[in-house]
């Protein structure tokens, strides 16, 4: 079983968010069913209450909570609802009845959105913490939350998260190797040892294992080398030809100051709504951040009620040849790494640059330029010079329980290349 998933622009300030078509190619950053169907929903975040930078993971039966937050760029207040669905490791719906994995109302009402103190543009910010007195999660596994407009039934967006049981324990490490077919790049082979809980008798048949790099849940890889020779534990790893790229790169966008004095801003038009910001050119081969990823690459939009939005204009000088039948996109924390038509770039002969706009809240974000063609995301061709950025990994252990008839998520281990 393998997890496979899933911008017109102008520098004169026209919004890129006029369209929300979502056509996911294979090998997606996001998981099947993770969709933002609204052209008004921005800065969608789902994370543990105590850590905005951590993955959306809960321990079953604990007091831990996740926080969902997002903005709707509009003045009117809406009545929104949230639902939860349970999924197998491949993100297909599990066979569990709702009352088996959740205790509480089928549809929960979100608190009223708070109107921002800025009006260029107006927006309302929403926040919801769970589990709570209205909803309790009863089973481990993969989950998807869905937000809808209660007044008209329109679907707004969905986000994945995980609930694990903390059964058994994992210790992991990362081996750095070179792979001949990846000339000039390094590769990472994560290796883990899972100490079995007492109720697992035949781990070679009952357990499934997955690795995920940099929280791209739609790109999970199932280890193909297992060793059960040591009693009470299983060693699992990838084969060398399926190793992760060990120098996977990100660009970094800091929008903490809307002014011409801010680093990275080439032009600023504060009179427009939202204000227009033109960034300095990203040039392939010269623009990678050399300091590495600080712990996690998740974006951090400013949560304050004074935080502003801008129409951010990206300019990219691609030194590589782009297949004329393919498209170039900008993807990042600001659009939850979804390949969306309103972030598709356009090549302009007058500047000899690729251009795209995005409505983005003040904050800090990681992003990339990716080529999409033949139903594939080619996210390595635009990398700069293979600089060493820290890589984050998660290891998952699932148990296909024959008595409960669903995949229990027994354990998750979060580790980095040097841990």
Describe the protein's topology.
Layout: E1 41-48, E2 57-59, E3 66-72, E4 80-87, H1 98-101, E5 102-104, E6 108-109, E7 114-115, E8 124-130, E9 135-137, E10 141-149, E11 155-164, E12 169-178, E13 186-195, H2 203-206, E14 207-213, E15 225-227, E16 233-237, E17 244-245, E18 251-254, E19 265-269, E20 276-279, E21 282-283, E22 300-301, E23 309-317, E24 327-332, E25 346-348, E26 353-361, E27 363-373, E28 376-378, E29 392-401, E30 406-416
Parallel strand pairs: 2-11, 20-23, 21-23
Antiparallel strand pairs: 1-3, 3-8, 4-6, 4-10, 5-9, 7-8, 10-11, 12-13, 13-16, 13-17, 14-29, 15-16, 18-27, 19-20, 22-27, 23-26, 24-27, 25-26, 27-28, 29-30
Report on this structure:
This protein has 419 residues and is mainly beta. 2% of the residues lie in helices and 42% in strands. It is built from 2 helices and 30 strands. The strands form 7 sheets. Strands 19, 20, 21, 23, 25 and 26 form a 6-stranded mixed sheet that branches. A 5-stranded mixed sheet has the order 2-11-10-4-6, with no helix packed on it. Strands 12, 13, 15, 16 and 17 form a 5-stranded antiparallel sheet that branches. The protein is globular and about 65 Å long. The two termini are 28 Å apart. 41% of the residues are buried. The N terminus is likely disordered.
Helix content: under 10%
The CA-CA distance between the termini, in Å, is 28 Å
Average of per-residue pLDDT values: 89
If helices are DSSP runs of H or I spanning 4 or more residues, what is the number of helices?
Answer: 2
Structural class: mainly beta
> Beta-sheet strand percentage?
35-45%
Question: How would a textbook summarize the main sheet?
Answer: 6 strands, mixed
Q: Which regions contain 5 or more consecutive residues with pLDDT less than 50?
A: 1-10, 12-22, 289-295
* Tally of strands: 30
Radius of gyration using CA atoms only: 22 Å
The shape is globular
């Amino acid at each position: 079983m393998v997890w496979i998933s899933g911008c017109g622009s102008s520098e004169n300030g026209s919004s890129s968010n006029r369209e929300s078509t979502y056509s996911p190619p294979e090998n997606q950053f996001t998981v099947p069913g993770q969709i933002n169907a609204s052209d008004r929903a921005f800065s969608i975040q789902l994370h543990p209450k105590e850590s905005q930078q951590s993955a959306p993971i809960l321990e079953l039966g604990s007091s831990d909570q996740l926080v969902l937050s997002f903005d709707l760029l509009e003045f009117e207040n809406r009545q929104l609802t949230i639902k939860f669905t349970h999924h197998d490791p491949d993100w297909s719906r599990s066979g569990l009845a709702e009352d088996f994995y959740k205790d509480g109302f089928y549809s929960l009402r979100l608190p009223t959105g708070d109107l921002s103190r800025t009006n260029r543009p107006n927006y309302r910010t929403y926040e919801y913490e769970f589990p709570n007195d209205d909803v309790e999660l009863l089973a481990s596994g993969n989950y998807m939350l869905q937000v809808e407009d209660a007044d008209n039934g329109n679907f707004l967006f969905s986000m994945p998260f995980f609930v694990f049981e903390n059964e058994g324990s994992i210790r992991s490490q990362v081996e750095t190797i070179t792979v001949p077919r990846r000339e000039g790049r390094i590769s990472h082979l994560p290796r883990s040892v899972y100490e079995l809980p007492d109720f697992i008798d035949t781990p070679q048949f009952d357990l499934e294992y997955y690795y995920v790099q940099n929280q791209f849940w739609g790109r999970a890889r199932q280890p193909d080398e297992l060793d059960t020779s040591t009693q009470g534990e299983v060693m699992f790893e990838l084969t060398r030809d399926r190793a992760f790229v060990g120098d996977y790169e990100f660009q970094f966008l800091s929008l903490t100051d809307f002014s011409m004095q801010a680093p990275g801003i080439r032009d600023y038009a504060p009179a427009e709504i939202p204000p227009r910001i033109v960034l300095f050119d990203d040039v392939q081969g010269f623009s990678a951040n050399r300091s590495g990823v600080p712990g996690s690459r998740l974006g951090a939009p400013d949560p304050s009620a004074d935080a502003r939005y801008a129409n951010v204009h990206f300019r990219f000088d691609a030194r590589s040849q782009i297949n004329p039948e393919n498209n170039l996109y900008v993807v990042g924390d600001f659009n939850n790494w979804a390949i969306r038509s309103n972030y598709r770039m356009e090549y302009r002969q007058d500047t000899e640059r690729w251009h795209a706009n995005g409505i983005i809240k003040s904050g800090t974000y990681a992003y990339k330029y990716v080529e999409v063609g033949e139903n594939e995301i080619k996210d390595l061709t635009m990398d700069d010079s293979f600089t060493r950025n820290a890589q984050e990994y998660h290891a998952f252990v699932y148990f296909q329980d024959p008595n409960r008839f669903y995949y229990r998520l027994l354990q998750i281990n979060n580790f980095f290349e040097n841990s």
